[in-house]
Write a structure and sequence with these properties.
The protein has two helices and 26 strands. It has 471 residues and is mainly beta. The strands form five sheets. Strands 11-12-13-14-15-19-18-17-16 form a nine-stranded antiparallel β-sheet, with no helix packed on it. A six-stranded antiparallel β-sheet has the order 1-2-23-22-21-20, with no helix packed on it.
Length: 471
């Protein structure tokens, strides 16, 4: 999430209303969570409070020199974990850094960017009008799970901006998504707002090549159905769409494909935000929790238009509207087939978050899917900030719980949405900066959850009974 949205989020949340009883909140501040369940123990180091049976290891901290001589960038965000090709006791973390066009510090190149001179032109996607590099990008970390230590880390994508979330591919790469769709008119040398692919096997900087057929918009997250290699994508906009990309060739996203937007069958240009009517939506209860819709998909054209109006044209053509689609993951939950789970950070009458499930058709992406459509279900809607406050990144746990990273106001929590629909507090950010949790993902052996706290810029490895939360 962009820092520039903070004032807007504070204003919106101060006016939030509860879905259950509709009372106005008098303040955005809260002393404690309303959730029962796991009791959190204060961390003597003042970083993160966890329940009994859980512990964390500090993996990395922003600003230190990496193995390649660049500085570890600030604002770590979306992240994925991959198996190490040669050592089962190690894993590979590929991590975004949400540095925006106006970010002046926390970059990988040092004060006044002297280290940028080490880069070949193909390794730096873009520079600003003043010649300085954009400071977003990706780092790769090799972590030893047994020794509980960082073995090596290095810069793997450079010169991009607003790299917020993304998604892991089944073929072993990370899709890093730019949330900042700036153009030359905004002082960039090239258009932004694209997806970039970074192989987990990279040993240094990759060539920064945007996957333009996947669209130019405020990209947030991506999730891939491994049965079909179809890519689903969220858009972090108050009136964003939900997209899918059908590649021309499986595992070869750079070869092009078709970009489409989800539409609700029988409800043209549906508004699924559930905002109150005076906020421009259908009002509370426009969509009920548990309600499912059959969907269809609309082809989009001019997907890299410099006008930045893809979502507007898609909605006019019949696509459904969501409020700030953010984190997304593909996974299995008990009693269910694989599905895509995604968060809408300010959806719902309290504007504190919705969680959606998209269950693909058995003929997803094929001509026959019109006879067996995919389904979209609202599985959770936050009644207020003390229960769930602006859910952002999401990961499906080994036990089928949805791990939700908060990006709200006041205390920030990691929260778990159980298959039974119960919200549990899993961790609390004890650092005075009260920054967001982000990038939750699990090690290949499912024993460790990695997560970032964006400020002060740390990556943590959390161990615990991941298969039995709340049970």
């Amino acid at each position: 999430m962009a820092i520039s949205r903070r004032f807007f989020l504070q204003s919106a949340q101060a006016a939030a209303i509860s879905y259950a009883a509709l009372p106005l909140f008098g303040s955005t501040a809260r002393a404690a969570s309303a959730n029962a369940g796991l009791a959190l123990k204060p961390d003597p180091d003042g970083l993160v409070d966890l329940p009994d049976g859980f512990s964390y290891t500090l993996v990395s901290r922003t600003g230190r020199v990496m193995s390649d001589g660049f500085l570890r960038p600030g604002r770590p965000d979306g992240m994925a974990c991959f198996p190490h090709p040669d050592d089962k006791d190690k894993c590979i973390l590929v991590r975004n850094h949400e540095n925006w066009p106006d970010t002046l510090d926390g970059g990988p190149f040092g004060a006044d960017d002297p280290l940028a001179n080490k880069l070949a032109a193909s390794k730096l996607y873009d520079r600003k009008a003043d010649g300085t590099p954009f400071l977003g990008g990706v780092t790769t970390l090799i972590y030893d799970l047994r020794a509980k230590r960082l073995e090596r880390d290095f810069l793997s994508l450079a010169g991009t901006t607003g790299n917020c979330a993304g998604g892991a591919t089944p073929w072993g790469s990370w899709l890093s998504c730019e949330e900042s769709p700036i153009t030359q008119a905004d002082g960039a040398g090239k258009p932004h707002g694209f997806v970039f692919e970074v192989p987990a096997s990279a040993t240094g900087l990759v060539d920064a090549a945007p996957l333009k057929a996947m669209g130019r918009f405020a990209h947030e997250a991506a999730a891939i159905d491994p049965r079909r290699d179809i890519v689903y994508m969220t858009e972090d906009a108050l009136d964003g769409l939900f997209y899918r990309f059908l590649p021309e060739r499986r595992k070869k996203l750079d070869k092009g494909g078709r970009l489409q937007a989800l539409a609700v069958s029988g409800w043209k240009s549906a508004d699924l935000r559930n905002w109150p009517i005076d906020w421009g939506s259908t009002g509370p209860g426009g969509v009920d929790v548990g309600q499912s819709f059959e969907v269809e998909w609309i082809d989009l054209d001019e997907v890299e238009s410099p006008a930045g109006d893809l979502r507007l044209r898609g909605h006019a053509a019949g696509a459904a509207r969501f409020c700030r689609g953010e984190g997304m993951d593909f996974g299995l939950r008990p009693g269910e087939e694989g599905a895509v789970y995604f968060n809408c950070t300010q959806g719902g009458p309290s504007r504190t978050g919705q969680v959606w499930r998209y269950r693909p058709s058995k003929d997803e992406g094929r001509r026959r899917e019109t006879k067996s459509a995919g389904s979209l279900t609202l599985i959770y809607e936050s009644p207020g900030a003390d229960v769930l406050d602006l859910c952002d990144n999401v990961a499906v746990s080994p036990g089928g719980d949805l791990i939700l990273c908060e990006d709200g106001l006041g205390d920030q929590y990691l929260r778990a949405l159980t298959p039974a629909g119960k919200i549990l507090d899993l961790a609390r950010n004890a650092d005075p900066a009260k920054s967001e949790f982000c990038g939750a993902c699990f090690s290949p052996d499912l024993s460790v959850m990695f997560v970032n706290i964006q400020t002060p810029g740390v990556t943590l490895a959390i161990e615990g009974p991941w298969t039995s939360l709340g049970r």
